[in-house]
Amino acid sequence: NAVHFQAHTVLALMAKELKKDDVAAKHLQVAESIKGAINQYLWMEDKGYYGQFLYGRNFKSLSPKSEALGEALCVLFGIADDVRSKTIVERTPITPYGIPCIYPYIPNIPPYHNNGIWPFVQSYWTMASAKTGNDAAVMESMSAIYRPA
Known about the structure:
By secondary structure, the protein is mainly alpha-helical. Helices cover 55% and strands 8% of the residues. Helix 1 (2-17) runs antiparallel to helix 2, helix 3 (68-76) packs antiparallel against helix 4 and helix 5 (119-131) packs antiparallel against helix 6.
């Protein structure tokens, strides 16, 4: 969802550069709609970060798992406002070895996204932490990147 938002934002910037204001306005409107839906339907106030996705057909349920790359991109792309961005960096679950791709883990299945810490995701998390001015999170994150190297 965050990448979908950013793709429309970039398309709007490209259209504006090409003097196609009607196309730019259309893509900005789509981007704002996606941003609004992310903030309305995926934000979990009690946890202080976004849920993974809505699942189900007729009666949608929010997956309460954090998804590290999505959380970081919501901060970096400005989907989360300043207050939410700081809350996300402060409250998204981190393990001693870094930010897991998803948390909590899914029991009884092998690791891939599950129980995994990916360096590129950790790097986006570092940038999101820096954007919020959370020096401790930046240092923790850099350590998580350097440790396996």
